[in-house]
Structures are given as structure tokens and as C-alpha cells.
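Practice problem: predict the structure.
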Amino acid sequence: MASPTQNAFNGRKLALIISIDDYKGCDRSLNHLKTNAQNLRDQLMNIGFEFPSINEISDGTMEMIDDFVEEMQYGDLVLVYLSGLYCHVDGKNYLLPAGDYETDRDENFQDNINDVERMLDRLVRDKKAHTVILILDCGTPYQLKID
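Answer:
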């Protein structure tokens, strides 16, 4: 039995932090997103996480997840933190890429958003990680209705 002073986890600790705050036409202040992400990165570094970088992106979230999965090794403890805006469509949650949401709401809108369940599937599909923690720290700007 491990004592409280022993570290029972022997794998690597990896983190990916994605913070999106460049939303034009949004009526909410999102200045706290970058601060929250930086604070989390600092705390993760203090407890031994590797690759705790903050990534601000306008698109390509799925590609970043795929690149991160390539870095994962068997037995890793993985934490992925996503912050930004999301919408709920047909029972699914989507992380919105940066953009102008006053003009980008059209029939192709759903093709340009990031399916959170699909992200999680990509993180666990190869069963590389010992544990995957996905934190979705997002607010919803509106409910999108697709006919």
C-alpha cells in the first residue's frame, strides 16, 4: 500500500490547454478566458505536467487534438482544457472556433464547429492514456436550431 507521501502514479502527466476568446459579435466579455488558461497552466506546471502550453486558435482544434494524441504514450495521465463558447445542437455540444457570430450563422455553420464528443473519442480511441480528463470551461452564446 502506498503511503500518502509516495507518488502512486509513474507515467507522464501531459496537458493541452486550448483557449479561444476572439469572438466578434459576442455580447459577453471573455477577457477572463485567457487569464483562467494561464492560471491553470501555472498550476499544472507546479504539479509536474509536461507540454502545458496555451493555444489560441481560430480553427484547427481537431488537428491540435490529433497532434496531441500523437505525443501521448501508454500510461500517460492526460488533461485537456477547452475554453471558449459552445453551442448545443441536436443533443451534442460543440466548441465554437473564433469568428463573427453575427454573420457566420448559416447552413454551413455546423460544418465549422468542433464536436466535443468527437474530440474526446480521439483522445481515448487508441487507449494510450491511463486517464483522460477533459474540462470544458465554456459559455453558450445562443441555442442554434438546425432545420
